[in-house]
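Exercise 7b. C-alpha cells:
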C-alpha cells in the first residue's frame, strides 16, 4: 500500500504538468492566433466599413460636384460644348458683380425671403402655442399641419397660380368684393413677390409649427405652474416663459428658413409659367436659384452659372457665421 501511494504521489505532479502544457499548446495554436488577429482587425476596421457608404455617396454626389463647380466657375464652359473650356480666372465673378440682373435677383431673393420667413415663423409659433394646450382631436390637427408640407411643389404652385389669376382668380374676387381694383399678380413687382411668398408660407408653416410644438412640450411644467401662481395670464406665460425657452429653436428655424429662401427655386419657376426661368417679363420675381438656372440651362453658360452657385455658397456661409455669433451672444446672455 505504501508503494502504491508513493507511486500515486509521484505520478500526480506529472499529470498536473501535462495539463498546462496541453493548454498552452491550444492557446498558441495557429487557429487561435488567426482568430485573435481577425478579432482585432474587426474591432478596428468595422466602424470605418459601416460609415464608408456615407463617405462614398458624399464624395460622389457632394464633394465632387462642389469641386467641379468651383473649377467650372473659373472657366468659360458652354452647355453646347462641354469638351472645350477656356481659363478665365475670376472674370465670371467680376461679370456677375457688374450685372444688374444678378443684383436684381439678389434683391428679389432678400425681399421674398423676408416676406415669406417672418409671417411664416410668427404664424407657426402661434399655431404651436394653441396646439400645446389640450384640444379635442389634437392628433388630427397636428396631422393637418403637415398636409401642406407633404403636398408637392408643383401641385401647390398650380393651385396658387389659379388663386392669383388676374382674370377670375379667387384673390381678385375677394379684394374686388371690398372695392379694391384687381391686381395683375404675375406682372406686378410686389404682387408677384407676395404671391410667391404665400406659396412658401402655406407649405412650411405647419412644418415649423410642429418643430415649435415639440420644443414647447419639452419646457418644464413647473415654470408654467409658478407663473400661474404669480398671477401670469396665458399671454404673459407665453411671452416670459415660452419664448425665452424656445430661443435656440427659434434661431434654428430662422436659419433654416433663410437658407431655404436663398435657394428658392420651384415656387417662382412654376408660378411664372412660360417666363418662369426669367422670373417674369421684367425679372420682377427672379431669385438667385432662377438666375442660376437661366444662366446654366437656358443660356448655356455653365461657367457663369457655377459662379452664381459659389456666390450663393458664400452667402450661406455668411448666414451660418451670423447664426454662430447670435447663438454665442444668447448663451452669454443666459
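Sequence design result:
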Amino acid at each position: 500500500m505504501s508503494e502504491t501511494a508513493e507511486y500515486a504521489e509521484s505520478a500526480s505532479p506529472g499529470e498536473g504538468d501535462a495539463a498546462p502544457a496541453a493548454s498552452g499548446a491550444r492557446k498558441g495554436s495557429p487557429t487561435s492566433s488567426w482568430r485573435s488577429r481577425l478579432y482585432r482587425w474587426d474591432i478596428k476596421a468595422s466602424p470605418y466599413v459601416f460609415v464608408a457608404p456615407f463617405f462614398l455617396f458624399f464624395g460622389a454626389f457632394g464633394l465632387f460636384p462642389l469641386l467641379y463647380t468651383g473649377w467650372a466657375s473659373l472657366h468659360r464652359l458652354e452647355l453646347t460644348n462641354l469638351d472645350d473650356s477656356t481659363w478665365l480666372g475670376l472674370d465670371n465673378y467680376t461679370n456677375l458683380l457688374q450685372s444688374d440682373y444678378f443684383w436684381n435677383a439678389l434683391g428679389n431673393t432678400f425681399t421674398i425671403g423676408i416676406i415669406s420667413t417672418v409671417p411664416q415663423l410668427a404664424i407657426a409659433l402661434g399655431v404651436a402655442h394653441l396646439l400645446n394646450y389640450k384640444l379635442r382631436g389634437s392628433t388630427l390637427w397636428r396631422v393637418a399641419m403637415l398636409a401642406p408640407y407633404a403636398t408637392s411643389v408643383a401641385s401647390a404652385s398650380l393651385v396658387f397660380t389659379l388663386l392669383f389669376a388676374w382674370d377670375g382668380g379667387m384673390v381678385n374676387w375677394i379684394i374686388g368684393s371690398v372695392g379694391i381694383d384687381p391686381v395683375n399678380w404675375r406682372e406686378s413687382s410686389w404682387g408677384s413677390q407676395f404671391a410667391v411668398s404665400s406659396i412658401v408660407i402655406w407649405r412650411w408653416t405647419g412644418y415649423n409649427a410642429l418643430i415649435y410644438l415639440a420644443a414647447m412640450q419639452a419646457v418644464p411644467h413647473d415654470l408654467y405652474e409658478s407663473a400661474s401662481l404669480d398671477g401670469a395670464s396665458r399671454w404673459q406665460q407665453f411671452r416670459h416663459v415660452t419664448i425665452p425657452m424656445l430661443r435656440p429653436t427659434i434661431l434654428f428655424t430662422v436659419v433654416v428658413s433663410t437658407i431655404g429662401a436663398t435657394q428658392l427655386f420651384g415656387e417662382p419657376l412654376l408660378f411664372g409659367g412660360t417666363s418662369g426661368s426669367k422670373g417674369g417679363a421684367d425679372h420682377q420675381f427672379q431669385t438667385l436659384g432662377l438666375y442660376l438656372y437661366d444662366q446654366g440651362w437656358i443660356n448655356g453658360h455653365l461657367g457663369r452659372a457655377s459662379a452664381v452657385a459659389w456666390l450663393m455658397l458664400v452667402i450661406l456661409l455668411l448666414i451660418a457665421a451670423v447664426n454662430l455669433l447670435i447663438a454665442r451672444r444668447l448663451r452669454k446672455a443666459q
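Instructor comment: The longest strand covers residues 81-87. Confidence is low (pLDDT under 50) at residues 1-25.
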